[in-house]
Amino acid sequence: KAGVTQTPRYLIKTRGQQVTLSCSPISGHRSVSWYQQTPGQGLQFLFEYFSETQRNKGNFPGRFSGRQFSNSRSEMNVSTLELGDSALYLCASSLAPSGGYNEQFFGPGTRLTVL
Amino acid sequence: EDQVTQSPEALRLQEGESSSLNCSYTVSGLRGLFWYRQDPGKGPEFLFTLYSAGEEKEKERLKATLTKKESFLHITAPKPEDSATYLCAVSQGAQKLVFGQGTRLTINP
Description:
heterodimer; A: mainly beta; 7-stranded mixed sheet; 4-stranded antiparallel sheet; 11 strands; globular; B: mainly beta; 6-stranded mixed sheet
C-alpha cells in the first residue's frame, strides 16, 4: 500500500513569491492535515481537511491556505513568502476525522527555502 | 493551553544500554497520545497510539506506557539503527496533533 506522497520534495523561492504544495493521501484515507516543522518551533499544526472542507485551523496568518479535492488530494498555498516561512511542510493522512483517536500517517515533506 | 514537554532534549547511549524517554502533557480530555520516530530529512514514522492510563504497547526494542500525566518510551538493548528523533504528540478531540519538541537519540556502536 503506497504511503503519503508529497510534491515537490524541494523548493526554493524568493521573498514575495507564492508557492503551492501538493499532497496525495494513503488510498482510502479522506482526512488530510498539514504541519510546518522548523528547528525553533518544532511541528506546528496548520489545518485539516475532510470532504473538501476545512475542519480545523492552527494559528497561522491568512497567507497560508489550503484546499482538498474530491479525490482527497490536497494542496496548500503560501502567498507573499517571508524568510520565516522556510521550513519542512508535512502532510498527514488518516482514515477520517475521529475526534482525535485515529493515527495520522506522514509524508516525506516538502523542504521550502525562501531567499 | 495544551502543552507537551519531552525530556531529555538529547540522549547519547552505548549500544545495548537501555533507557527511557519522557513525554509529559497537560491537556484536558486526552483522546490519544502518539509516538513517532523521525529520521533526518524525512517525515515522522508512526510507532504507537496510547488511549488510557495504564496502557502499554510494544514493538521490537520499544515499549510505550501511559499515565494520567506522562508517557514513557522505553528502549531496551538499543542498536545504532534506533538513532533518530522521537516525537510525542497528543490529540484532544480534533484532527490536530500537538507535538513535543522531541528527543534526539544517538546510539553509539
